[in-house]
Amino acid sequence: MTPPPPAVRAAPPRSFLEKLIPPPGGILPAARVPGQIRRLVAALPVDRKVAQLLLVGFDGRDASAPFFSTLRGIDVGGVVVEQRNYNGAAALGSLTGAIRSATAGRSHEAPLILAPQEGGQFSAFPDLPPQTAAGDLSGVLAAAADAARAARTLKRLGFNGVLAPDADVGASSGTDPLGPRAYSDDPRQVSAYVAAVVAAYRSARMLSAPLHFPGIGAATGSTDDGPAEVGLDMRALGRRDLVPFRAAVQAGVPAIVVGHAGYAPDSFVVPGSLSHAIETNLLRFELGFRGVAITDDLEAGAIVAGNAIPTAAVQAVRAGADMVRISGPADWPTAYRALLAAVRTKQIPVARLNDAVTRIITVKRELGLRTR
Questions:
Q1: Structural domain that includes position 51
Q2: Per residue in 105-124, pLDDT tens?
């Protein structure tokens, strides 16, 4: 691995909007004024605000899938195109075009269209860049070049973001839930890698969402399979796992994916994605992150082992998540109804809902996405 770049001097004070989504040297056009977005959010009907919280998956590989008729009626915040939807690069542009077409009416907010494309075998589309897993890269320059190729390719195919890079610090000994998915077991090297990848996507006007906050490299197992814990106290977590996420925030990352492991503030039994201590106290207050907090897929074993998905979605938003990722096409409509009911019964305060939707709309405007 190449050594990390030298430390960057602290930036001067920034405006509210810059703090929310810091502009990379003027490449992304900022939304005109925060007040404009606040007024838009205030005017949205509650059902459409709640739909913006959803980042959903679907079955099918073309516009004939039943998902597209559902998409016309529910103004979801984003769609994840996964490996099960992939029928080759030639068909991918048509698929993302069908998503845009389905959301083109009824004043829909244009959705985020995201790819889980970390690199190599950890990508939804293995024959598209980045074609090397993070742990197999030769260094930060190679990572940046790979990410730049991926950004150009995916944007040309209709995507506006990725669920990547993996910002976890790999295990140096014992259980290793990540393998080559992690760039390094050195927090400084992972920080340099994450900053380089985030910068590459931002330069292409693409969203990137590093995962899995606050780090699962030291987890007792894979959260995809079942409950797992990161048995570090918060001081140790801060010295190790949080370092790359701090680098991502400093690099102006617009979104972060929150993982499902259990951590010390919740006695290691509450998934981070459902934890107020992790999603609000740690991510917002300690790291100062003002972008969009996205849960990892709520279909994961760590969630479904002890929670119904609609209940978990409500708990996640109450804890501080702005978007809930739900890959199961049968589960996200029920989660939508549960979230809507939670808002109407004030389990989710209107202020919490408006806060989340304001972040989501701000990110979309920074990416150039508008109301259809």
A1: 24-366
A2: 767 899 999 999 999 999 99
